[in-house]
Amino acid sequence: MSGTPRGRGTGPVSRPPDQDWEPARARPLRGRVVLVAGATRGAGRAIAVSLGLAGAKVYATGRSVRGHPATPGRPETLEETAEMIRAFGGRAVAIRVDHTEPDEVRRLAARLRRAEHGRLDVLVNDVWGGEELTEWGLPPWKMSWEKGRTMIERAVFSHILTSRFLVPLMVARRRGLLIEVTDGAHTDYRGSFYYDLVKSTVIRLAVAYAAELRAAGLRRMAAIAVTPGFLRSEYMLDKFGVREENWRDAIGSSRHFAASETPYYLGRGVVALAADPAVAARSGRVIGSWTLARAYGFRDRDGTRPNWGAVFARM
Predict the structure, then answer these.
(1) Is residue 29 situated within a structural domain?
(2) What angle do the packed helices 145-152 and 193-215 form, to 10 degrees?
């Protein structure tokens, strides 16, 4: 079995996290400006909502807006993400952006420069778009290179392009955090050639940016790759025919599902990193949600502390 449960998606749970989450009350990110690229669903949406609940002003970007869904079969939109943040008193702006198009990303950067006077504190690269492109059970010489190229464009080039135009806003202030969202905090093969290539490369983007930031003397900036464990996303809930309220009913179909986590587990981890004044010490690493939970003392929405890293080590 690969390090990733096959078919694991990135759709969201349907409701925002609980209001009584302590960091949400504390608002540790009040006054910060963040941008989450790929905030329509799943980990991206949960990260955006979590950052908003923690007090940050959130720019949520991606391709799916009302009337124009970008992912076949998925109904989620950027507007919904922004509405979830506002429902809890947060500030959010939803902007449709194709992060593979240089002109669109350039305009996004210009908009933030004008609206926020050049301020950007956190950039989260979570653009994916590879669910319908991933091929399992085939060797690379039998896979569709067309699908592979599209996956690389969506899930790697989009990250490179977004960082190219948005990171300069942080460099100008000599502080900021770049988060790369990947799948797996390991070097083992992920079971499908292009999938593995993309997810491994995203980790290298964080490693490379961390090295370049250090070389430039930008000691108050950090680049970190983060990963969820077995993500209990809306996509996976749909796949198993359950909802968040009764997700344990699906454990019989996959024993590893018992160790799954909500997307907000990683969202809380990103908030903890963004609020950590010593976050630069973690720059250049890939960190799992389970490791962040131990380091910063938070739990998932149901009060548990899933540890996919331990499960994967036993597999």
Answers:
(1) no
(2) 30
When divided into structural domains, the chain yields a total of 1
CA distances from 211 to 205, 218, 219, 267, 283 (A): 10, 10, 11, 25, 9
CA angle 3, 240, 258 (to 5 degrees): 55
Report the chain's terminal Cα–Cα distance, integer Å: 8
Domain assignment present for residue 26? The answer is: no
- Residue 177's φ and ψ, nearest 5 degrees, are -130, 125
Q: Per the domain annotation, does 302 fall within a domain?
A: yes
- Inter-residue contact 88 to 24 (CB < 8 Å): yes
Strand-strand pairing, 122-125 and 176-181: parallel
> Which of 65, 62, 61, 39 has the alpha carbon at shortest distance from 50?
39
Q: What is the pTM of this model?
A: 0.91
- Element containing residue 230 per DSSP (H, E): none
- Domain containing 160 equals 35-314
pLDDT in tens, 249-303: 999 888 899 999 999 999 999 999 999 999 999 999 999 999 999 999 999 999 9
CA 287/CA 163 separation, integer angstroms: 20
Q: How far apart are CA 49 and CA 271, in angstroms?
A: 10
Question: Kind and range of the H or E element at 129?
Answer: none
CATH number at residue 259: 3.40.50.720
- Strand residues in 129-242 grouped as ranges (E): 176-181, 221-227
Q: Decide if 1 is inside a domain.
A: no
C-alpha–C-alpha distance, residues 196 and 211, integer Å: 23
